[in-house]
């Protein structure tokens, strides 16, 4: 019965990882997938996660019963507090909801599905940054919300196109949905400054747009949890209703465990309850209830002051290694006198750098140097280390000159 089903294209980023794995060249480098690597190029289980893991193994009270539909209660509350801050007025007012989801992807989906069913502005479209994480379009279109783009990356300055962004926000129909990256924008690594966030919030309020933050890198970007949450906290302090999808994949290194949360800042406690009840109804029909393992680890760490401190140290280790590698790559390119300006590599933040390399140059990086990166010229800084940074810089130098 399915002979007419057309084959779908493979996911670009997972296909890239597979190609890297199949490559037998000794100098191959994986700058594709957004997962942290040590200086030896290995995945890293955070020491604090190991500790929490051991505590769980020794806890005879833990079982494998179902979690509630909305997830592990103390995890949900801790996640909301992490993004909004311990002194959040919205939390004190009792108008913050939280739903445990299948990591960041599931949280974006859960929020999008709720909007598709209950957002009251007829025909509202969702605006995503140009460029953005490819799944944003797929998720919103998947739930039936049309997607448009707002300018974000300025290829000339290799920085933020604030004018274009604000311009599109101004001209978008009132009550549109805007998907914003609070920190460590994927794929560009370019974030608005606090002042620019205030301007963005001004327009969002003036136009009555709905704010949907997708936060996949809190603490991972700068090593500082509060700094990375500035935008979300600023919006919430101004009384803006919003959703925040939170992923614990990167900042806890829990990629496969799918620990995530959707934090909801509503106008009143009653509205918060209404939203949560609808999401519970939908969640029951999609996943029934979320998985426990990852959320238990995050919960143990976030609710224990000592483990929390250790987590922040682990975060700094990851963030600082990446910042060091930005500097090292920049220094190598400067030494080589590679044509063009490269300071964006050090100015950008988080897991990724948008190099400005063209698709044709990316192909040479792959074919000649066995260095794997996405076609849009994005590199995962986590794939760079002291052993391969010279090699990567030489390859970039070569492709830029030819
Ligand atoms: N949003 C953005 C912008 C991301 O970069 C990612 C991770 N690549 C995610 C969401 C979600 O990741 P996960 O589902 O693994 O939490």
UniProtKB/TrEMBL annotation:
Its cofactor is pyridoxal 5'-phosphate. Residues 27-396 form the Aminotransferase class I/classII large domain. It holds the Pfam family Aminotran_1_2. Keywords: Aminotransferase, Pyridoxal phosphate, Transferase. The keyword Transferase applies. One of its GO terms (biological process) is aspartate biosynthetic process. Gene3D superfamilies: Aspartate Aminotransferase, domain 1 (3.90.1150.10), Type I PLP-dependent aspartate aminotransferase-like (Major domain) (3.40.640.10). It is an enzyme of class 2 (transferase). Coiled coil: none annotated. GO terms for molecular function: L-aspartate:2-oxoglutarate aminotransferase activity; pyridoxal phosphate binding. The keyword Kinase does not apply. Its EC number is 2.6.1.1. GO terms for cellular component: cytosol. Belongs to the class-I pyridoxal-phosphate-dependent aminotransferase family. Homodimer. PANTHER family: ASPARTATE AMINOTRANSFERASE (PTHR11879), GLUTAMATE OXALOACETATE TRANSAMINASE 1, ISOFORM B (PTHR11879:SF55). This is aspartate transaminase. It comes from Lunasporangiospora selenospora. The gene is AAT2_1.
